[in-house]
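Look over both lines before class:
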Amino acid sequence: MYDGQEFLRDNRWCLSRRGLLTGVGALGAAGLLSACGAGDSPTSSQAAAKAGTVLARTGDVPVGGGTVTDGVLVVQPEAGSFKAYDATCPHQGVRVAAPRDGVVTCPAHNSTFSPSDGSRLGGPATRGLTEIPVTINGDEILRA
C-alpha cells in the first residue's frame, strides 16, 4: 500500500528517508539508505547515448505524453514534434516519470518540469531537465 513514504526508482520501490527512519530507527537506517541513494540513478553519460542510438519509436510516444527508456525521457508535446531529455532529476538524481496531465514529475520530492522544453515548473530542483538532441528517421527517434 502506498502511504507517501516510498517512491519508485529504477523500477524498484524505495522508502523515503523519513519512512525508513520511522520504521527502522536511526541506528539501522544508515546502511539501508545507501541502497536508494543518488548513486543508483542513471548518469548523464548513460542517458546521453552516442549519436545514432535509437531512443524510441514514434508510435511508442503518445501525443501530449512520453516514455522513459534507459535513462532518457522522450516526449511528443505536439503531434509530430519529439524531444528528449536526460530523465535524471537535477535535484537529487532520481529518475523522473513520463508526463501526466502535461507535467513531468520527479517522484522523490515532486519537482515538476515542462515536457515541451524541459524547464523547471516547481519543486526543489533549481534548474530544468537537460535536453538531448534528436532526429527522426522513419519511425525511429534517434540521438542526434
Summary: The chain has three helices and twelve strands. The first helix runs from residue 17 to 24. The two ends are 41 Å apart (CA to CA). Residues 1-13, 24-47 have pLDDT under 50 and may be disordered.
